[in-house]
Amino acid sequence: MTQAQARAGLLIMVAVTIGGAADSVIVRLLAGDIPAMQIGFTRALFGVLALAPLLAARPGLLRTQARWSHVLRAGLKLMSLVLLFAALQRAPLATVTAIGFASPLFVALGAWALLSEAPDSLRGAGLVLGFAGIVVILGPALGEAQGLALMLALGSAVLTASIQLMLKVMGRADGALTLVAWNLIVSVPLALLPAAAVWVWPTPEQWALLAAQGAIGTACQLGVTRALQLADASLVAPVDFLRLPFVALAAWVVFAEMPPLATFIGGAMVFAAVMVLSLAARPRRGLPSRG
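Now predict its structure.
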C-alpha cells in the first residue's frame, strides 16, 4: 500500500460517509408519505439498475456456489434496512446513526458464540465500554415516543452484525462485487410483495429521491469495496464514524434538528470501543508462533 493508495482509499471512504448522510436525509424527506418497506424495495430496484452496466460488462461476477446463502443474506439485509428506515423516519437522524455503530459489538459477541473466537480482557473491556455507550445514547429516549424507533435501530444493528458474520464465511468464496450484486438482485423479488401490500404511488419528486437513494446506496457499496482494495481496513474503517457529524450537520441544516448531547457522548464511547476491539483483533508482533 503506497501513500497515494492510502490517500485515495481515505478520500473514497469520506465520500461514502457523505453518501450515507445523504441517504438518511432522503429517508427522512420521504417520512410519512412512503412506507419503509417500499423504500427498501425501490432502493434495491434502483440499485440493480445502477449496477446493470457493470454486470453487463462483467457477467462473470454473478458466478457463485452459495446461492441460498445469498438469499438468506439478502433477506436479513432487507429486514435490517427496513428497520433502519423506520427508525430514521421517527427518531433523530444522528441518534439512529450512532446506534448503528453498535454492529461491531454484536459481531464480536457472535464471533465468540458462533465462530469459537476466544475472548480476552481487552475485547471484554471494549464490549463493556461499547454497550455502556449504547445505554448512554438510549437513556434520554427510553419511555418517550421515539424510544421504540431507537429500538428498531438497535434491531437493525443486530441484523447487520449477523450479515457481517455470514460474510466472514461467504467472503472466502465470493468476491466483494459478487456479494453486492447478488444482494441487490435477490432483494428485489424478496421485497416486491411486502412493498406491494403497503404501496403508495410516489410523486415525480419522490420518484427522483427514491432513484437517487438507490444509486447512492450502490455507489457507497462499491466505494467501500474500492477503498478496502486501496488501503488497509484498519485505516479506512474508522472513517465511517464521520457519518455521525455529517448526519448531525445535515439534520440541523435541512430539518433544524439537534440531537441530545447524549448522542455524541455515547457515540464517542462506541467509537472508542470499536477501536479497542480493532486493536485487540490485530495479531501481536514478536510473539513466538505455536506449532
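Residues 246 and 286 are 40 Å apart (CA to CA).
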